[in-house]
Write a structure and sequence with these properties.
10 strands; Glutamyl-tRNA Synthetase, domain 3; 46% helix; 19 helices; single chain; three-stranded antiparallel sheet; Rossmann fold; three-stranded parallel sheet; mainly alpha; 4 domains; binds glutamic acid
C-alpha cells in the first residue's frame, strides 16, 4: 500500500517536542509504507505567519532527518481554495451569513436559556436576495458557512477505533471570514485531496474537526483519508505541554546536546505500547512503529528521560556518524577511541574530556585524592609497566603483577591508577583505554601523579 502523509504546521512559531512528535509519526509511517511525506506550511494567516519560522521549521526537520519529499505553502494555493469555494457556492453548500459576533453571542445566550445546544440556527439560509442586498448596503460583509449534511459521520480512527459524530449537533462551520480570508478547514481539505493524502496523523486536539472535514471532503468529491489522532504529550506535572514550551524547542534541545536520533526515537516510542528505546536505524524504527500501538491516553514528557536516552543512543551510534559531529564540536577522535569512550558519555560534548585524556595533557590528580601510600604505589606501577606492544590484555597483566607485588586489590589497586591516567574516578574500561593511551603518555601521567 502506498501511503502519503503530511505534516502541516503553521509557521507562527518554532517546532517544539509536541509537534515534532506529529512530524515523526507521519514521516515514519510514510517511510514504512514507501510513500511520500509532505511538509505543508499552513501560512494563510498572514498576520501571524513569518518566513523566519517557515525557514526554521524546514531546518529543524532537516536536522532531525525528517526530510520531506516536497514543501507546499498554502499561501501559494489561494486560487485553488477560491475555486473550491465557488464550486460549493454553486451547489448551495457554502452560504453567506451576515450576523455580527455580537448577534451570534446573543443567539447562543438565548439557546442556553432555553436549554438548547449552541448550534447555529441557519437563519441566513432564509434570507432573500433583497434582504442580503440591504444588509450589504448597511456595510456588512458576509462570512461563509458550509452547510453540513444532516447525518451521522462514522469513521475508523487508526488510534482510537470507531468514532461517530452526529453532524446535527454541530454548527455549520465558517469557512471564509468576512474579510475574505480562509479559515483552516477548507484549505486543509482541498490540499489533502489534491496531494493524495492517504493518512492524516495528528494530535487529538483536531478530533472534533474530523467529521466536518470528512463531510467537506465528500462534498468536494474527494475520498476521505484515514485519520489517526494521537494523544497530545503532557508536561511532567500532567498539565498541557503547550503552556510550558518556553525551552522545549528543537533548537533548544539541540543546544542542550541531544542528538536528532534521540529526539526521533523518543517521539516515536513515547505514548505507545513500545518501550522508549534509542534507534540509530530509522528503517528499523519505522518497522516498529504502528498507529494501532499508539495510546489514546496522554503520555508525559520528561526531559530527564530524553537525556538518559541520549546516553543510550550514543552507546550505539556508529563511528561514521559520530566522528563528523564530534569534529564539529572541535573534538578529534578516531573510531577505536570513539568505541571505547562512547559508553561513558551522556552528550557528545562530554567526549572532550576523553579527547584530552587520549591526546593532550590533563592536570595531575589533586593532592587530597591520593594518599602518600597511593603515590608510592603509582611509582611502583610505573616501574612495572610492561613494554610495548600493548593490547587489551596488557592492563590485566600489569595490574596482576602489581597486585602480587603490593598486595593491593579491588578499589585500592584500581582507583589510583584510574585517577592518575584519566583524572576521573569513573570512565571507560581501562583494559581498552590503556593501549590507546600508549606507554609514553601512561608513564608521564604515573610520574606526575606519583610526585604530586
Ligand atoms: N495547521 C494545523 C495545525 O498546526 C494542521 C492540523 C492538521 O494536521 O490537519 O494544527
Amino acid at each position: 500500500m502506498n501511503s502519503t502523509t503530511r505534516f502541516a504546521p503553521s509557521p507562527t512559531g518554532r517546532l517544539h517536542i509536541g509537534n515534532v512528535r506529529t512530524a515523526v509519526l507521519n514521516w515514519l509511517f510514510a517511510r514504512r509504507h514507501g510513500g511520500d511525506f509532505i511538509l505543508r506550511l499552513d501560512d494563510t494567516d498572514t498576520e501571524r505567519s513569518r518566513e523566519e519560522y517557515a525557514q526554521a521549521i524546514i531546518e529543524d526537520l532537516e536536522w532531525l532527518g525528517l526530510v520531506p519529499a516536497r514543501i507546499e505553502r498554502q499561501s501559494a494555493r489561494l486560487a485553488l481554495y477560491e475555486e473550491a469555494a465557488e464550486q460549493l457556492k454553486r451547489e448551495g453548500l457554502l452560504y453567506d451569513c451576515y450576523e455580527t459576533e455580537q448577534e451570534l453571542a446573543l443567539k447562543r445566550k438565548a439557546q442556553a436559556m432555553a436549554g438548547h445546544p449552541p448550534v447555529y440556527d441557519r437563519a441566513a439560509l432564509n434570507l432573500s436576495e433583497d434582504e442580503k442586498r440591504a444588509l450589504r448596503a448597511e456595510g456588512r460583509q458576509p462570512h461563509w458557512r458550509f452547510r453540513l449534511p444532516d447525518e451521522v459521520v462514522r469513521f475508523h480512527d487508526a488510534v482510537r477505533g470507531e468514532v461517530r459524530v452526529d453532524l446535527r449537533s454541530l454548527s455549520d462551520p465558517v469557512l471564509i471570514r468576512a474579510d475574505g480570508s480562509f479559515l483552516y478547514t477548507l484549505p486543509s481539505v482541498v490540499d489533502d485531496i489534491d496531494f493524495g493524502i492517504t493518512h492524516v496523523i495528528r494530535g487529538d486536539d483536531h478530533l472534533t474537526n474530523t467529521a466536518v472535514q470528512i463531510a467537506l471532503c465528500q462534498a468536494l468529491g474527494g475520498e476521505p483519508p484515514v485519520f489517526a489522532h494521537h494523544a497530545l504529550l503532557r508536561a511532567a506535572d500532567g498539565g498541557p505541554l503547550s503552556k510550558r514550551l518556553g525551552s522545549l524547542g528543537v533548537a533548544d534541545l539541540r543546544e542542550r546536546g541531544l542528538e536528532p536520533e534521540t529526539i526521533v526515537s523518543y517521539c516515536a516510542t513515547i505514548g505507545s505500547a513500545l518501550p522508549v528505546e534509542p534507534f540509530t536505524d530509522m528503517d528499523a524504527l519505522a518497522q516498529r512503529v504502528a498507529l494501532e500501538r499508539l495510546s489514546s491516553a496522554p503520555a508525559r514528557f520528561n526531559e530527564d528521560e530524553l537525556h538518559a536516552l541520549n546516553a543510550r543512543l550514543l552507546h550505539a551510534l556508529p563511528c561514521e556518524r559520530a566522528l563528523p559531529r564530534l569534529r564539529q564540536q572541535g573534538i578529534e577522535l578516531d573510531c577505536a577511541e570513539w568505541e571505547v569512550v562512547r559508553a561513558n558519555i551522556e552528550h557528545l560534548a562530554d567526549a572532550a574530556h576523553w579527547e584530552a585524556v587520549l591526546h593532550a595533557d590533563i592536570p595531575a590528580p589533586s593532592t587530597d585524592s591520593l594518599s602518600a601510600e597511593d603515590r608510592a604505589f603509582l611509582q611502583q606501577a610505573a616501574e612495572l609497566l610492561p613494554a610495548e606492544p600493548w593490547d587489551d590484555a596488557t592492563w590485566k597483566a600489569w595490574t596482576g603483577a602489581l597486585k602480587q607485588q603490593t598486595g593491593r586489590k579491588g578499589k585500592a589497586l584500581f582507583l589510583p591508577l584510574r585517577l592518575a591516567l584519566t583524572g576521573r574516578a569513573h570512565g571507560p574500561e581501562m583494559s581498552r583505554l590503556l593501549p590507546l593511551l600508549g606507554r609514553e603518555r601512561t608513564l608521564i601521567r604515573l610520574h606526575a601523579a606519583a610526585t604530586g
